[in-house]
Every structure is written in structure tokens, then in C-alpha cells.
UniProtKB/TrEMBL annotation:
Residues 2-112 form the ArsA/GET3 Anion-transporting ATPase-like domain. One of its GO terms (cellular component) is GET complex. This is ArsA/GET3 Anion-transporting ATPase-like domain-containing protein. One of its GO terms (biological process) is tail-anchored membrane protein insertion into ER membrane.
């Protein structure tokens, strides 16, 4: 356990990437996790918001439009967290199918590393 702890606390060897869904509660918990990890000396440089529904996909559907607006608010909150803490924020869109296999991982990778 000491060796693992030493690795986790060495920013040259490890860093923590927080991944959250776009809800207010998830962002509050992510912010708390970020502060706790940093207080403990663990490097945190990335926050990923997963399954973002964009306004582009609303197509006139009222529910999707409300969901998109809520996600946009969460993205703005996440970016504020990122700016205040020096963490890079990345968004990943909501995929219409489950991300499985090599094609799914390629699509996910394209969204993450654009």
C-alpha cells in the first residue's frame, strides 16, 4: 500500500481524472473530490463531463431542449471549476448507442482528444 500511495502522490507518475455526468449534484461532488485529492497531494488536471446532450440534437423536442439547457448550465459550471482550479474540462457528447468495441472507442477517443 505504501508503494501505491507513493505512486499516486507522484505527479510525474500518476494523475487523477475526474469523470462526471452533467448534473448539479455530480458537479458538487466532483468539486469536493477535486479539493480533497489536491489537499491530499494527488495531481488532478482533468475533468470530463460525459453524455452531454447538445441543442443541435433537440430537433424541436421540448424534453430534449430542456435537457440540453440543463447540460449547458452544468458545462458552464464545470468550466468555472476548471478555470478556478487550473483543471482542463473536456465534454463528451451523448452517443445514441452504447460505446462498445473498437469503433465505439474510436468515436469516444475522437470526442475526448479533439
Amino acid at each position: 500500500m505504501r508503494r501505491l500511495s507513493a505512486i499516486l502522490h507522484d505527479p510525474a507518475r500518476a494523475e487523477f481524472c475526474i469523470v462526471a455526468i452533467p448534473t448539479e449534484l455530480a458537479l458538487l461532488e466532483s468539486g469536493r473530490l477535486l479539493r480533497a485529492l489536491r489537499k491530499d497531494g494527488v495531481a488532478v488536471n482533468h475533468l470530463v463531463l460525459n453524455r452531454i446532450v447538445s441543442a443541435d440534437g433537440a430537433g424541436g423536442d421540448a424534453f430534449v431542449a430542456r435537457l440540453s439547457a440543463a447540460h449547458a448550465k452544468c458545462v458552464a459550471q464545470a468550466r468555472a471549476i476548471g478555470e478556478s482550479s487550473g483543471v482542463r474540462v473536456t465534454t463528451v457528447p451523448f452517443f445514441d448507442t452504447e460505446v462498445v468495441g473498437l469503433p465505439g472507442l474510436r468515436a469516444l477517443g475522437s470526442a475526448l482528444f479533439r
